[in-house]
Write a structure and sequence with these properties.
three-stranded antiparallel β-sheet; 15 strands; GMP Synthetase, Chain A, domain 3; Rossmann fold; alpha/beta; eight-stranded mixed β-sheet; 31% helix
Length: 405
Amino acid sequence: MRSERFTFPGSGGVELAARLDLPAGGPRAWALLAHCFTCSKESLAGARIAAALAERGLAVLRFDFTGLGGSGGDFANTGFAGNVDDLVAAADHLRRTRAAPQLLVGHSLGGTALLAAAHRIPEARAVATVGAPFDPAHVLRRLGDQPLVFDPDGTAAVTFAGRAFRIGRAFLDDLAAHDLGQRIAQLHKALIVFHAPQDETVGIAEATRIFVAARHPKSFIGLDGADHLLSRRADGQHVGRVLAEWSARYLDPAPAAAAPPEGDVVVTETGEGRFAQEIAVGPHRLRADEPVAVGGDGSGPGPYDLLLAALGACTAMTLRLYAERKGMALGPITVRLRHGKVHARDCAECEDRVGIVDRIEREIVVPGELDDATRAKLLEIADKCPVHRTLEGRSVVVTRVATAE
């Protein structure tokens, strides 16, 4: 996955900060994602859902509503209707510059806003809400008994879901003015509702109201154990994975982008964290990262892990070919590997006794009993694995720096 950052004009004429997450190899469809109330496009839930969708071929546009994150304007002077208009402006921008969004995804009040905006985005085929309230006025109920003391500028300080911010009188009036029941009933798009039964910010009853008001096709996914903000990485990733699979039947696939030429492996930074990479090998997509302990996010195997995986896979394949050729009834092969760096003087297998060397331990596990002759032959064949020979032979890496098109 790679990301592009830019701005586009919002409904109020101010510039809205946006991020477009693009899958390697080109998108099969386009999605628009709305963040939670007072959050930003960089919220953990939104980022993780977008990443999971992009890994499965969907391009995702997420942006900051007016007055939030990197966008211009004053949040205190906005309203729910303005959020809806911003979403329509975002869809218009995608339509003009790339392709109209077919999938709409909204977290918390962003989901409610998308339900209100969906009829103004005709190309949208499917809508997903995540922890969304049935109606915007839910925010007013969550404010509870907080004293609203309006300053001369017409704004008051409030706290919502642990966040402090300022709102105006018009904002409160706007929240109370919307009734989405009829709008949801006339959605005319596939709907999936994600909600955590333990959500203490937006209760599960709100999700039930959305689901009951909607007509088929509709689905409901309970996020057991998740909190409202999907703070655990696994929860956001789960929503993205399920959403990508569910939406596939409703979206018109874009023409498949050309895969890398046969024999090429393309590695691209995803823009998530410091080290995350997406690896394209023909039609296949893999991920690489570094462990948290060394500054990565641990979202994929590290480079040496992938190197060991290549050796292990090649070893098992080579042994399988040998067993088939010799008519051996060899059961499932498992290869365990470990990499480390050791002083050459401590490496009994090393010819050179000076400096530091890379040492790979490889254990081949096969079921059943093996006689000494068979065991020795398997070890001999394993050492003939092409990747093994590459690692122990002389390799030349030719590198050049090219300018991106």
